[in-house]
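ok new one. same drill as before - structure tokens go in, u give me an amino acid for every spot. 309 of them this time. try not to just spam alanines like last time pls lmao
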């Protein structure tokens, strides 16, 4: 009999864009009585359907989905807000004796939900200005050497040319005297809130890239240009974060005459492939993910059953 302190069970289905998560998630949900909590930083936005490859209305009719079509494109949405919303959705699903299943490719959202958001301090503007000035004046190598002296662990994982993370590490240390790596270690050490089984989807790179190239053609046929044009006409300008995402910025550049049609499609396919590669790298660091090809459906079912789902 379940004890009061038993942790809520949670399935995580992760993987890069275009790998085939949606169809497997529907089969898993129908077999195990689950509902999907989207773990996608773009599918959360309303009116952005084709470029985000949202599950179709018929697919969403098969299985309840949460955190899709959730906010306006001009709203700020981030990992901290996702954690609050996802916890609420998980609690609602569990209260109805259903199984929550997190599905998507936004690794930061997964990590933030399962390990908590890093409680980093607010950085005074004076320190921000000082680090930015030093970067401009001294260059990346000098700042990386400074970071190595005060936070060797962060310096070891941050490339000298990664200005954004280099600056972040120095800002945190200069503001607090505490290395960024210590904050991250505290996050890693937190006790898990859920009893999680992680499933990862992967394909050979050539296979995945062929699917991504084909997906670009499908999105265009479905009306991606018209979707972006409609967003612009609704007043959602190209400067908004969601409008700068893959697919949307490419169509904006075509609509505004900056790129030819051929160039827009070429860059869209290229940037999607690069994004998928980054997702593979992110999820590949997680030793708790059980990896499968999307065709290995029965093997995934057996894994869940062996783990009491």
């Amino acid at each position: 009999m379940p004890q009061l302190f038993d942790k809520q069970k949670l399935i995580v289905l992760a993987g890069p864009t275009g790998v085939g998560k949606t169809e497997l998630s529907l089969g898993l949900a129908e077999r195990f009585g689950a509902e999907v909590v989207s773990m996608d930083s773009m599918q959360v936005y309303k009116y952005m359907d084709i470029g985000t490859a949202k599950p179709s209305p018929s697919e969403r009719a098969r299985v309840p989905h949460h955190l899709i079509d959730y906010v306006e494109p001009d709203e700020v949405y981030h990992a901290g807000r996702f954690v609050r919303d996802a916890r609420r959705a998980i609690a609602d699903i569990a209260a109805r004796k259903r199984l929550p299943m997190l599905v998507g490719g936004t690794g930061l959202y997964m990590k933030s939900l399962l390990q908590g958001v890093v409680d980093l301090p607010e950085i005074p503007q004076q320190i921000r200005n000082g680090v930015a000035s030093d970067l401009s004046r001294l260059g990346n190598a000098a700042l990386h050497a400074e970071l190595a002296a005060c936070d060797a662990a962060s310096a070891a994982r941050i490339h000298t040319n990664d200005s954004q993370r280099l600056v972040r590490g120095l800002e945190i240390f200069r503001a607090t005297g505490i290395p960024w790596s210590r904050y991250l270690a505290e996050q890693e050490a937190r006790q898990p809130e859920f009893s999680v089984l992680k499933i990862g989807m992967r394909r050979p790179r050539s296979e995945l890239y062929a699917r991504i190239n084909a997906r670009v053609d499908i999105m265009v046929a479905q009306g991606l240009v018209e979707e972006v044009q409609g967003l612009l006409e609704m007043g959602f300008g190209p400067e908004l974060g969601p409008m700068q995402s893959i697919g949307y910025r490419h169509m904006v550049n075509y609509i505004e005459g900056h790129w030819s049609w051929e160039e827009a499609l070429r860059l869209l396919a290229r940037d999607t492939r690069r994004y998928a590669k980054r997702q593979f790298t992110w999820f590949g660091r997680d030793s708790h993910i059980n990896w499968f090809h999307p065709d290995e459906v029965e093997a995934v079912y057996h894994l869940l059953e062996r783990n009491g789902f």
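Confidence is low (pLDDT under 50) at residues 1-5. and btw Residues 125-189 form a domain with the Histone, subunit A fold (CATH 1.10.20.140).
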